[in-house]
Design brief:
It contains three helices and five strands, in the order βαββββαα. By secondary structure, the chain is α+β, with helices and mostly antiparallel strands.
């Protein structure tokens, strides 16, 4: 698991599991709350514990850092 965006700076931990499957996606955590979002296009696949306001914030964060997240996914999974 590689943390790409951290909670201290962004309010959430955004991680990519190195042994995960496609399509390109990230996992977002804060406390016990978790969310999975695909990256092409940015789409929330599931969310547990985050309210609609938090989900909108997460989606905006993922869209803002989309290039970085997709680049890191590719670096970790395409060899």
């Amino acid at each position: 698991m590689v943390t790409i965006l951290n909670r201290r700076r962004h309010g959430f931990d955004v991680v990519i599991y190195t042994n995960d499957h496609g399509p390109a996606h990230v996992h977002v955590f804060r406390g016990r709350n978790k969310l999975k979002a695909e990256l092409q296009p940015v789409r929330i696949v599931y969310s547990r514990g985050f309210n609609s306001r938090e989900r909108r914030r997460i989606r905006a964060l993922l869209e803002e850092h989309h290039t970085l997240l997709l680049r890191e996914w590719t670096r970790l999974h395409i060899k």
